[in-house]
């Protein structure tokens, strides 16, 4: 970005400045630490200058927003056109209670829904399964059948809102239920807007709600790609997630690397079943974490966008511009929230949300201050949403596109994160791809090492967490925490019993049989699952059929 | 106690997949010279108690972040009692509301370590209890 003569001059004057001015200052006032590191452990130089960007090329590396390689954003006008979607992940207890929370959030100016399911739902168990004991309605809403889903979206017009569903292993079942509810509202599938997470690889790596082994899981995922290409052209068919990988302890570089490596595996799988890259790639979406190290995080988002564009263009020869664009949702980092002095978390979330906005996110969830203690209470959720609104309407950072571009530090970090992430992807390729790397425990171990290092840094006070290892105070018990109604489990089981008495059990049996037959072939299972849910077959019944054909995944544990 | 290493079972009961804390604690205990067995995810209380007996551990550490501790911790304690096991020290960790802690201690859980705990405090606690 600078001509050779100019670069030479800058280098000379920098050297002079370092030797004369800086050296003298250091002799009198040594720096605070021997070594400065970013939030994810990368060493930071004391000053960044054009010298760090000697190799950079404006049009090739940055270009303009909405143009390859999309470093500066996927849309030409970004937030000058429209703000990001403010989307708070929510759900707890019964469908009825969650429905109330959604209506509250929409009333407060939230612009999209994001459904949290409880663990039994995420693992394909009905509420009356032995494994569900104590878990029903705890971390999300309990959904056993279409009946619950009808209640969940009661009075919410599905042609007006966009909905994100955090569901992975049983994604086809919940997507089918959503389609069925919409149909009852008179809304056709092709009008539905939203995202299904549908990313099982990161479940094996970091999140843990897997059901089936990799091969049938990849089949279900690509079944959704194919079905949506034909029937739901506005729907994001997957949300390839780095969020949970980062929460498990990964660094910023690892988050980008492992997420994009997962993305590569999904593209490969879809091509393998005969889909054309430009038919499904425009509907792939991503999901990242936003941590405290503001500038490193901004660089991370920019690096991820550039690297994905290159991968899609060079590796997969995608032609459609939309196939090259990495569109993403961001959630602030749950693992940075402290149980100590929880109100400080509001500040952390603000910094993290700012990083996501400066990084050009398409949608955002801001965590609530009390989430290290319990599910968030209503007033905490409101503050979290207000944080986004303050950023959008008051901070001014939305008035121009990619405002940190050209910062020597941010551009250097962007280059470095991209380079290091690419090296990881090459390593994973050598191991035979992501599935192999997971089976060998490589990815999990890399993450565990980072997590352990992070903890040690805190304990040795190399890393300061305000209120935890510095600036501690004596605190009383936190007040006003949300409690999930302990009756949820019993109520859910009662409703399930009633449902099984009321529905046409003959029809259910017939549809499940058809699904079983199809599961043994190569057929796309989406239409069959849709028939099952419409006859009020339960999530557990459908997943049991698939378990009997596909088997279950067993994790390989290495410490 | 010279020569005999403290044996610890780190377990993830229930359906919760958050295992960062469990794995970090497992490693810290191992680095502190203990023998650590980690169960992996989705263990029933029955499986945990069975493993604890088979592996002849001194300590069981259970981690839950989903809120299911109110069901699963007491279940595991009951099973230990049924098997007439009194010498295993049980500790817990995760997102556990303060008001639940006295109830858990009452049924015999020695200590609950919540987010922000220094692993050295856990190590110290175990070393003092296992004599």
Our measurement of the CA-to-CA distance between the termini of chain B, rounded to an integer number of angstroms, reads: 7 Å
CATH architecture of chain B: 3-Layer(aba) Sandwich
Largest sheet of chain B: 5 strands, parallel
Instruction: Bin the helical content of chain A.
Output: 40-55%
How many structural domains can be distinguished in the coordinates of chain B? 1
Q: Roughly what fraction of the amino acids of chain B lie in strands?
A: 15-25%
The strands making up the biggest β-sheet of chain A line up spatially as 1-10-9-8-7
Percent of residues in beta strands of chain A: 5-15%
| Rg from alpha-carbon coordinates of chain B | 13 Å
Please report the distance between the alpha carbons of the first and last residues of chain A. Answer: 46 Å
What's the CATH H-level homologous superfamily of chain B?
Answer: Cobalamin-binding domain
From the spread of the alpha carbons, the general shape of chain A counts as: globular
Annotation, overall tally of beta strands of chain B: 5
The greatest interface here is:
A-B, 44 and 36 residues
Morphology of chain B: globular
What is the CATH class of chain B? Answer: Alpha Beta
Radius of gyration of chain A: 24 Å
Per DSSP, the total helix count of chain B is 5
Largest sheet of chain A: 5 strands, parallel
Structural features, described:
The complex is a heterodimer of chains A (559) and B (131). Chain A has 559 residues and is of the alpha/beta class. Among the domains of chain A are: 31-55 and 197-471, TIM Barrel; 492-550, no CATH class. Chain A has helices at residues 4-28, 58-62, 95-107, 119-122, 146-152, 171-184, 201-207, 214-231, 243-247, 252-272, 277-280, 294-315, 321-324, 344-358, 378-393, 408-430, 434-439, 442-459, 488-502, 505-519, 526-534, 539-550, and strands at 85-86, 89-90, 113-115, 162-165, 193-196, 235-236, 238-241, 284-290, 328-332, 363-365. In chain A, helix 10 (252-272) packs parallel to helix 12 (294-315). Chain B has a five-stranded parallel β-sheet with strand order 2-1-3-4-5, with helices on both faces. The chains are: A alpha/beta (559), B alpha/beta (131). Chain A binds chain B through residues 119-120, 122-123, 125, 131-135, 138-139, 203, 206-209, 247-249, 335, 338-340, 372-375, 448, 451-452, 455, 459, 465, 468-469, 477-478, 481, 484, 486, 555, 557, 559, and chain B through 14-20, 23-24, 26-28, 30, 36, 38-42, 44, 66-68, 70-72, 95, 97-99, 114-116, 118-120.
């Amino acid at each position: 970005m600078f001509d050779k003569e100019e670069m030479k001059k800058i280098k000379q004057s920098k050297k002079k400045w370092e030797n004369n001015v800086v050296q003298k200052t250091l002799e009198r006032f040594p720096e605070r630490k021997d070594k400065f590191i970013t939030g994810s452990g990368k060493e930071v130089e004391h000053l960044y200058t054009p010298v760090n960007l000697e190799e950079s090329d404006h049009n090739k590396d940055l270009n303009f927003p909405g143009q390859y390689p999309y470093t500066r954003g996927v849309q030409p006008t970004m937030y000058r056109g429209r703000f990001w979607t403010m989307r708070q992940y929510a759900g707890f207890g019964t469908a009825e209670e969650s429905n109330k929370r959604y209506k509250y959030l929409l009333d407060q100016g939230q612009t999209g829904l994001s459904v949290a399911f409880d663990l039994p739902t995420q693992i394909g168990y009905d509420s009356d399964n032995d494994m569900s004991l104590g878990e029903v309605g705890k971390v999300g809403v309990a959904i056993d059948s279409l009946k619950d889903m009808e209640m969940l979206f009661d009075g919410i017009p599905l042609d007006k809102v966009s909905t994100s569903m955090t569901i992975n292993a049983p994604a086809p079942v919940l997507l089918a239920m959503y389609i069925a509810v919409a149909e009852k509202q008179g809304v056709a599938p092709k009008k539905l807007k939203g995202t299904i997470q549908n990313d099982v690889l990161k479940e094996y790596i970091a999140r843990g709600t897997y059901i089936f082994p990799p091969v049938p899981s990849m089949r279900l995922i690509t079944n959704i790609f194919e079905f949506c290409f034909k029937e739901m052209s506005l729907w994001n068919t997957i949300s390839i997630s780095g969020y949970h990988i980062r929460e498990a302890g990964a660094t910023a570089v690892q988050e980008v690397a492992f997420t994009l490596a997962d993305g590569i595996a999904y593209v490969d799988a879809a091509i393998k079943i005969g889909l054309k890259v430009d038919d499904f790639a425009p509907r792939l979406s991503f999901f990242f974490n936003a941590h405290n190290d503001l500038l490193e995080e901004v660089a991370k988002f920019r690096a991820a966008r550039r690297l994905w564009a290159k991968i899609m263009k060079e590796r997969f020869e995608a032609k459609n511009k939309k196939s090259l664009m990495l569109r993403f949702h961001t959630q602030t980092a749950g693992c940075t929230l402290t149980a100590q002095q929880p109100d400080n978390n509001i500040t952390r979330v603000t910094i993290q949300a700012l990083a996501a906005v400066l990084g050009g996110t398409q949608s955002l969830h801001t965590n609530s201050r009390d989430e290290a203690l319990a599910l968030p209470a209503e007033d905490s959720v409101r503050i979290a949403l207000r944080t986004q609104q303050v950023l959008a309407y008051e901070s001014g950072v939305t008035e121009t596109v990619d405002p940190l571009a050209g910062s020597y530090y941010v551009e250097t970090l962007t280059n470095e994160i991209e380079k290091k992430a690419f090296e990881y992807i090459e390593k994973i390729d050598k191991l035979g791809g992501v599935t192999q790397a997971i089976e060998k425990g490589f990815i999990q171990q890399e993450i565990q090492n980072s997590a352990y290092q992070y903890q040690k840094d805190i304990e040795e006070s190399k890393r300061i967490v305000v209120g935890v290892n510095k600036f501690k105070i004596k605190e009383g018990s936190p007040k006003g925490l949300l409690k999930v109604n302990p009756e949820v489990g019993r109520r859910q089981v009662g409703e399930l019993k009633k449902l099984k008495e009321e529905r046409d059990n003959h029809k259910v049996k017939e549809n499940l049989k058809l699904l079983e037959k199809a599961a043994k072939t190569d057929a796309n299972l989406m239409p069959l699952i849709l028939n099952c849910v419409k006859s009020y077959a339960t999530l557990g019944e459908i997943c049991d059929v698939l378990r009997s054909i596909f088997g279950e995944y067993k994790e390989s544990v290495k410490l | 106690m010279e020569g005999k290493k403290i044996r610890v079972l780190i377990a993830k009961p229930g359906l919760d997949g958050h295992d960062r804390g469990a794995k970090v604690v497992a490693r810290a205990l191992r680095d502190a010279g203990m023998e650590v067995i980690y169960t992996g995810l989705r263990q029933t209380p029955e499986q945990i108690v069975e493993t604890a007996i088979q592996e002849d551990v001194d300590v069981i550490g259970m981690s839950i972040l989903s809120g299911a501790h109110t069901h699963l911790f007491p279940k595991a304690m009951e099973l230990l009692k049924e098997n007439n096991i009194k010498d295993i020290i049980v500790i817990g960790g995760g997102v556990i509301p303060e008001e639940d802690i006295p109830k858990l201690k009452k049924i015999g859980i020695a200590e609950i370590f919540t987010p922000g705990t220094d692993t050295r405090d856990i190590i110290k606690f175990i070393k003092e209890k296992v004599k």
